[in-house]
Specification:
- Homodimer. Interacts with LigD.
- It comes from Asanoa iriomotensis.
- Belongs to the prokaryotic Ku family.
- By secondary structure, the protein is of the alpha+beta class.
- It has two domains: about 5-30 and about 70-170, Ku70, Chain: A, Domain 2 (Beta Barrel), CATH 2.40.290.10; about 185-235 and about 245-305, no CATH class.
- About 35% of the residues lie in helices and about 20% in strands.
- It has six helices and nine strands.
- It has helices spanning about 75-80, 120-135, 190-200, 215-225, 245-280, 285-315; strands at about 5-10, 15-25, 65-70, 70-75, 90-100, 105-115, 135-145, 145-155, 160-165.
- The strands form two sheets. A seven-stranded mixed β-barrel has the order 1-2-6-9-8-7-5.
- The radius of gyration is 35 Å and the shape is extended.
- The relative contact order is 0.08.
């Protein structure tokens, strides 16, 4: 069973829904330790008092806000909790909005919300189903691990999904990027060819078709070094496309995408052909049955005249 990483109450209006929060994702990166180069000596981090040089236990560490001039205001966990009592166990909903209105750039990480217990299943289902009927997501805030988060809650099937979000002042404006080109007069042929390339690569969203191949290669590298095998380097990143070659590159890209799609179609056709051959091999048994049926029909047909003759002569046929 998954363990909850946060427990609290969702409140909307005067309704309170106890919930448990679970991580909806997991990383699959390779875990590394640090070593001093040329040795087998591990590198470890210690929390050290910079004045005494002695290690400090985590429980004895408090936070300090820099106020300039080398001065700090020291705050302990109890003081931080006192300014917002109950906030670390409460998720207050402020509004319900259309999901399409939220720019994906605001999303951080996804979590699943489950009922806080058997007694809260009805209110949980009420909030979930009401949001489905309204077609809206709930926007709220909660404090978790000493930080306040903006959140969006939406229904996904039977479960509520919470996504932590950035606040507006945490999202940079795209206009701040100085090197982004404005409107450029492009050739109609370039736009047409680019549209063809997009169409030739169009597909439905199938997340299971994508895999973290870099992590796979890292694992293969580890196994190769472990076995003392020779390491082969992968191809370098492609060079930037020259503007003068753009049309030619687009044309070749379209042809390549079409041939790959046709190749995929041929593979599918080959699978269907193999299935048909398998069915054809089983056909003789069906033919035997058909032959038996035809024989039975012939036998029945032969008996029919005898019955008709019996009726005419009035004799009984055994």
């Amino acid at each position: 069973m998954a363990r909850p990483i946060w427990t609290g109450v969702i409140s909307f209006g005067l309704v309170a829904v106890p919930v448990r929060m679970y991580s909806a994702t997991r990383e699959h990166e390779v875990s590394f330790h640090q070593f001093q180069k040329g040795t087998g000596d591990r590198i470890r981090y210690l929390r050290v008092n910079e004045r005494t040089g002695k290690e400090v236990e985590y429980a004895d560490i408090v936070r300090g806000a820099d106020i300039g001039g080398g001065q700090h205001v020291i705050l302990d966990p109890d003081e931080l909790d006192s300014i917002a009592p109950g906030r670390s166990r409460s998720l207050e909903i402020h509004a319900f909005v259309d999901v399409e209105e939220i720019d994906p750039v605001f999303y951080q990480k996804a979590y699943y919300l489950g009922p806080g217990g058997e007694e809260s299943t009805r209110t949980y289902a009420l909030l979930r189903d009401a949001m489905v009927d309204a077609g809206r997501a709930a926007i709220g805030t909660l404090v978790m691990r000493g930080k306040e988060y903006l959140t969006a809650i939406r229904a996904d099937g039977d479960v509520l999904v919470l996504q932590t979000m950035y606040f507006a002042d945490e999202v940079r404006e795209a206009a701040d990027l100085a090197d982004v080109p404005g409107r450029i007069k492009l050739k109609p042929t370039e736009l047409s060819m680019a549209a063809q390339l997009i169409d030739s690569m169009a597909s439905g969203w199938k997340p299971e078709e994508y895999r973290d191949t870099y992590t796979d290669r890292v694992n293969e590298l580890i196994e190769a070094k472990k076995a003392g095998e020779e390491i082969t380097e992968t191809a370098a990143a492609p060079a930037a496309t020259n503007v003068t070659d753009l049309m030619d590159v687009l044309r070749r890209s379209v042809e390549d995408a079409k041939s790959r799609r046709a190749g995929g179609g041929r593979k599918a056709a080959a699978k269907k052909g193999a299935a048909k051959k398998t069915a054809t091999r089983k056909a003789p048994a069906a033919k035997k049955t058909t032959t038996a049926k035809k024989t039975a029909k012939k036998t029945t047909a032969k008996k029919t005249p005898a019955k008709k003759t019996a009726k005419k002569t009035g004799r009984r046929v055994a």
